[in-house]
Amino acid sequence: MARKTDGMQGREGLEDLFAAMREERVPPSDALMARVLADALAHQPRPALPVAAEVGAGVAVRPGLWRRLAGLFGGAGALAGMGTAAVAGLFIGFVQPEGLSLLGDAVLGTPLETVELIPDVDMLFAGN
Amino acid sequence: MPRDMQAEDPATAPDEALLARYAAGDPAAARALTLRLVPRAMGYAARMLGDGAEAEDVVQEAMLRLWRAAPGWRAGEAQVSTWLYRVVTNLCTDRLRQRKRRPAAALDEAPEVADGAQGAEAGLIEADRMAALQAALDALPDRQRQAVILRHIEGFTNPEIAEVMDIGIEAVESLTARAKRALTAILAGRREELGYGEED
């Protein structure tokens, strides 16, 4: 009985000691804080730089496909005009409108059936 | 807008948000995390090791590991404070293993709390009581000491301790119970000196 009473007192006293130790913190020294902060800054990743800054620093940025094509044909306007002409030619060749044939006959004076873009080989030997 | 401003305030931002900002290159986050975490880690390490200089080395190493882990930190995986306490625990365990374990000697090395002729009736100053408790903590097995310090000094819950120590909650309860029994027994012989054993 007496031992149990002692034990209870011991536990209660222990809780008091814990409470006192919670109050009595062990503070870090200023030197430790400085060392930890120095480590933090030394190992901190560098923030990402904006693209403009990278160009200024000499890092080449490769232009896109459309920008390179436009540059090749003299600008975006010229590239758009060529595209339009190509689409129109494809349309005319595919549809073959009647009015266009009559216009060709009037201009050439004879019906145009075929056009030989490469002369026949026989013409090369005709002079012999 | 005020909400955003509040979220950006380092003093009130959560640990994880500050760590993300640190990884993004914000120096204010580094300072805020240092001010917030180092005192807590220092208090724990000092109680674990009973040696302030060693505790400072441990804390610096633990914080260095945190800085290095920051760029790869995965949100929601672990609490920053729990992760740090686990690292401090492991570093302290390594140091304690390197020491020669002399529990009885450690208790004897505690400052004499009172001279028999002069101080028994006058009571003890608080520093003497803390020194005696620290010596008793030093005499505990490592795992018991970790559990009881985390529970009763650092104020962690049992689930948090289980996460820090990587054990089950029942094991935590067992460790803390055994630690308190052992501390009571160790301190029993010094009850009068510590000022809590006198019966009214």
Automatic annotation (TrEMBL), chain A:
This is Dihydroorotate dehydrogenase. Keywords: Membrane, Transmembrane, Transmembrane helix. The chain crosses the membrane at residues 72-95. It comes from the Bacteria.
